[in-house]
Each structure stands twice: as structure tokens, then as C-alpha cells.
Amino acid sequence: MEDDRISLAHGNGGRFMRELIEEVFARNLVDSDLDIQADAVPIALNGGEAMITTDGFIVQPLEFPGGDIGSLAVHGTINDLAVAGARPLYLTLNAFIEEGLEIALLDRIVGSLAKAAKDAGVKVSAGDTKVLRRGEGGGLYLATTGVGVRLAGVRPAMNRIRDGDIILISGTVGDHGTAVMLARQDFGLRGDLVSDAGPVTELTESLMDFDGLRFMRDPTRGGIATIAHEIIRATGFGVRFEATIPVKEQVQSVCDMLGYDPYYLACEGRVLAVIAPEQADEALEAWRAIPGGRDAVRIGRIVSNMNRVILETTLGGERFLEELEDDPLPRIC
Amino acid sequence: MEDDRISLAHGNGGRFMRELIEEVFARNLVDSDLDIQADAVPIALNGGEAMITTDGFIVQPLEFPGGDIGSLAVHGTINDLAVAGARPLYLTLNAFIEEGLEIALLDRIVGSLAKAAKDAGVKVSAGDTKVLRRGEGGGLYLATTGVGVRLAGVRPAMNRIRDGDIILISGTVGDHGTAVMLARQDFGLRGDLVSDAGPVTELTESLMDFDGLRFMRDPTRGGIATIAHEIIRATGFGVRFEATIPVKEQVQSVCDMLGYDPYYLACEGRVLAVIAPEQADEALEAWRAIPGGRDAVRIGRIVSNMNRVILETTLGGERFLEELEDDPLPRIC
């Protein structure tokens, strides 16, 4: 990899992406007080406060089992507001469309985006389109900004995390990444796996009354292993994952075949929550009562004796999950 | 042109782009009450109101005389808020970066964006980066969403326009489009022309106390001719441009050579305003007292006897300016 040029690894959610964001974006934008750790940030307006987030989407193929780039853009953006404890209300939409794209396909995608927005109760307030010359795009890229309001209750944030806190996940991990890979047929594999892409607002709102709720995040690029690394970098604690992380059989098979680790694969409709030990069981019950949280389970805890991400294996062993470096799966979201 | 696929003309600001936005975006997003005529729209938040807009940027080359894609993204976005009578406060930033882009170039562009934001008093609150595979991008695309608050005073909007109103422009037209074309060297031409790209907030705020102010817009893709067509479609009136539209000699020369019409070329730091006749002179004086408005001039009027865009020529003749169809200048903004 040339050091002075952008590589695919700068987009995978791991170390190179973090360094690029720290060294190029955050450093230049120091006057903006940009918080590169937060999913959504508060902005002061007219004496009140709103929450804002933004996200780009380059998934390939544009349509995949369980969603498409349009519904994914809505879910990815509103989920960033949801895990920050906000209710999404408005979206803006930018479409970068490559010359030659079928208008019927674009129409299906915008229709799907509109339906996802309507189902989630958000309005698409403003939009812009740009057309890219043939060969200067990948069919369609979307960028969406979400605006919402903070919900009453706790204000989940990484700096609330304490030693001994429990880590929950709302469902199986790696479904989205694997479903998109299979749809791409790069690997000659097929399957009936469906992406988990969807809104997580019900899941996040169900925990807002738990004063022991510390932090929530939707594990997208880089998966739950990357969230764990963000936690240890921000808090100085360690993360110990237990052998309970739910992985669908088909996801595990694909991972075994290709040498991937499902803990680094993207979800697009799951929540990882960190919560005080005495409220973990009750929070799990709340999640399991919601359709999107039926498979919710405790998957680990925060520890103070080691500043690493450890995975306990089913055979009683353990191994480190390192920060993601190479091996990017480009255009997964 | 194939009817069922996206063409470059779908991005040029003219008829095909309008039809694409009406038929694919607005039709699908009907539940969002999307106002495709407005530069920025109000959103209700916490009992108050904010203004929001969004814009994508694909200009090529990434750096050009007078700016770069970073500063252009800031100016283009805050200007859409400004002409809607709002003060810009926050931006979100999406960067789509092509594999292989020099990190030093990216760093210059983000630095330029940060400076433009700081100079304009706006904070970059949230951001996201995606990396595009080599050959699936054009170096760098940006998408920015701007949030601001409405200024006290009039609420400029197209439906305020009346028969006999006067049209003003804050400076010469077509500088940005021509400067970018020259920088691209597609045509073997060179020149020392500089883009007009810059903030228009001083210009727009200086007119907010004029109760006769009807409407403002920054003429970007499609130029002032396209704004005129938007006015006649929205109001049913006609637009009569006088032979006073200021065009720099070098812009006119390039246009003559290439067969372009400067009235369709993009500006990125000008304001076209429509104002009641009795306040037009005073508004012009207000603009001329501002550095960005020194060359401000009256360029036409709203008429009711004809639903067309007419240009009076210096020789006393007149011709129609039709809605832009083909002849796109791709990647001009």
C-alpha cells in the first residue's frame, strides 16, 4: 500500500480509516469541535437543541436480499440518531447517479427509500442530484443527513461506561455483510440469507428509561469488534466478549470458507448496548419483547484489568480480536 | 439519448433534470411534502423552526482558480440557506473518496473547506467518509447538508413575485463555469479568470429589511436563464432580461468561441433578486456598498404579457432564452 494515497483499507471502519479521519478531517476541522466518536451530535438552534448525523452509502449490488441502497440509507441514518438517544424526524438526500443507470432501477430505489422513511416517520425535507459521467461512478451513491430531537431519559455516551458493565446485542451479527457478499457473487457462493437492515428505533427507545444504560451503537462497518476497540480507546477499559455472540449458521459457514471473522462484519439493524450489571437482565427482557430483539443476548462485559478486546471461545480458550487493518469488504454499506 | 437510462443531461440543471426530479424523486417522496422549488426548507424542531438544505459536489478539477471542491461545498450550501433568508449555522459533510487519491490533495481540500466554514461562521458538526474502488469515482465527491435559522424580515419565496417587479444581479455571470472549463483544459484554452465562488450571506442579509423583496436565488447549474424558467413555471409570468446583464470580456470570448451562452453558465457567488420596482434602486445601492456587490446592476423585469424568457439585445432586438436541454457541462459544481 502506498502511504501517500487513499487505499480501500481507508474505508473499512478499522485503523486506517480512523487515522484518516483523525489526521485529515478532525485535524483540519478543529474549529468545528467535530466529535468523531459520536453517532449523532447535538446542535443548538433557536434556544433549543436538535441532534444531527450524516452517512454515505455505496453498497454494491444496489439491491440485495432484505433491502437496497435506498432503504439502507434511511435505516443507516436514523439508526445513528436512535443509538444516540434521539428520535429521527427529517432526512436530506443527495444522489450521485452514474450516466447509464436504468431509470426504472433508480425509481425502485427511490420508492424503497420513500417507503422506509414513511414507515419510520421521517420526512425527506431536501434533496439534490448530481450525474456522474459513465465510468466515474458505481451506479449510484447516496448521502443522507438525519435530524432529530433528543428523547427524555438518559444520554447514552461512551464516557458513561464503567468497569463491570454488561454488553448486550439485539440479534445475530454479520447478516448484512454476508448477505451483500453473497448477492455480489464475487465468491461463487449462493444462499438465502437476508440482510438484517432495518430501523432500530424501537430497540433504542425501549432502553431510554434505564438509568443504568451507558452507551448504544449500531455495529456497521467493522462490526462489533470495531465498536469494542472504540470503547477501549475512549475509556481505557478492556472488552471481554463471551462465547455467546449469536452468529447464524450460514454466516459462520461463509466466514469459515473465506477466512473472515463474523465479529468484523457489518450489521445494519442491530444494537450493541452497554448497561449497568443490575439492569442487564431487565433490559434483555425489554428487548426480547420486541420483534427486532427476540434473539437479544448478553455477549460480554467491560473489564479493567486489560486494555484489549478478548474473545472467549466455546472450548474455554480465549483470543484477542485486533483492530481491523486490511481485508476490507468494499462497498458493504 | 436512451430514454430509459440516466444521461449527462439529467444533471445539467435544465429540462431533463427537472423531469427526473419531478418524476422519480418528488413522485416517490410525495409523503414527505418535498418542496423541489425551494433552496432551503423549514423544519419544525422542539417547537421552533430551523432551515435545512443539501447539495452534492462533483466539480472537476478538484482545485480551480478561485476555489476547490472543499470551499465550493461550503459556499454552495450556505448560499442556498442565505437566499432563502436564513443564517447558516451548521454543516454535515460526506466525502466519497476514490482509491488512489493523493492524501496531500485531500488534506488541502479539507483544510480549505474548514477555512471556508470558519470564515462563514458555520460549524461542521458531523461527517462520514466512504472509499470508492479505483475507477468507481472521480477522485472526490462531497455532499453537504446545511442547517440554519430564519432571519427576521421578509420570507423571500417565488410566490411573492408580482408583475412589474425588477430583477437584480449582484455581479457578473458565468465566471465560475468558465473558470472551471478553462482549468479543465478540455478545450485547449487558458486564461487568468477566477471563479466567483464565495459566500453571499452579506448580500442576502442586506436585503432582509426590504419589505418589497420577493425572491432571491444563487444562479448555479443552468445559470440565470434557468432561474428565469423556474420563475415563469411557478408564477405564470414572463421574464424580460435587458441588455445590461454583466458578462466579463473573457467569459464572453470563451462563450463565443465554444458556442455557449453565458446566461446558462454557473455562478457560485452571485445573487439574483426580484424586488418591487419602488425599492429596486435602494436595494442596488445597498448591494454596491458591499465588496461582493460592487458590480450589482438591474438586469430585467417580470412581465405578464408573455410566458417566456426574453433577452433584449444591445442592438435593440430580442430573442428567446429556451429551457436548457442538451449541451451539459458536466462536473461544473
What Rg of chain A is obtained from the alpha carbons, in whole angstroms? 19 Å
Order of helices and strands of chain A: HEEEEHEHEEEHHEHEHEHEEE
DSSP helical segment count of chain A: 8
Largest sheet of chain A: 7 strands, mixed
- Percentage beta strand of chain A: 25-35%
Give the terminus-to-terminus CA distance of chain A.
23 Å
The interface involving the most residues is between: A-B, 83 and 83 residues
Question: What's the oligomerization state?
Answer: homodimer
**Which secondary-structure class do the elements of chain A indicate?**
alpha+beta
Taken from the alpha-carbon principal axes, the silhouette of chain A is: globular
CATH hierarchy: architecture of the largest domain in chain A: Alpha-Beta Complex
CATH top-level class of the largest domain in chain A: Alpha Beta
Unreliable sequence segments of chain A = none
Overall number of structural domains of chain A: 2
Output mean pLDDT of chain A.
Answer: 94
Task: Give the beta-strand count of chain A.
Answer: 14
Strand order of the largest sheet of chain A: 9-11-8-12-10-13-14
CATH superfamily of the largest domain in chain A: PurM-like C-terminal domain
CATH topology of the largest domain in chain A: Phosphoribosyl-aminoimidazole Synthetase, Chain A, domain 2
What does the model show?
The structure is a homodimer of 333-residue chains. The first copy, chain A, is α+β, with helices and mostly antiparallel strands and 333 residues long. The first copy, chain A, has 2 domains: 37-150, 60s Ribosomal Protein L30, Chain: A (2-Layer Sandwich); 158-320, PurM-like C-terminal domain (Phosphoribosyl-aminoimidazole Synthetase, Chain A, domain 2, Alpha-Beta Complex), CATH 3.90.650.10. In chain A, 29% of the residues lie in helices and 25% in strands. Chain A has helices at residues 15-28, 69-83, 103-120, 175-184, 201-205, 223-235, 249-258, 277-288, and strands spanning 41-45, 48-57, 63-64, 67-68, 86-98, 123-132, 140-150, 166-169, 213-217, 238-241, 272-275, 297-303, 309-312, 318-320. In chain A, the strands form 3 sheets. Chain A has a 7-stranded mixed β-sheet. Chain A has a 5-stranded mixed β-sheet with strand order 1-2-7-5-6, with helices on one face. In chain A, a hairpin with a 2-residue loop joins strand 3 (63-64) and strand 4 (67-68). In chain A, helix 2 packs parallel to helix 3. The first copy, chain A, starts with 14 loop residues before the first helix and ends in a 13-residue tail after the last strand.
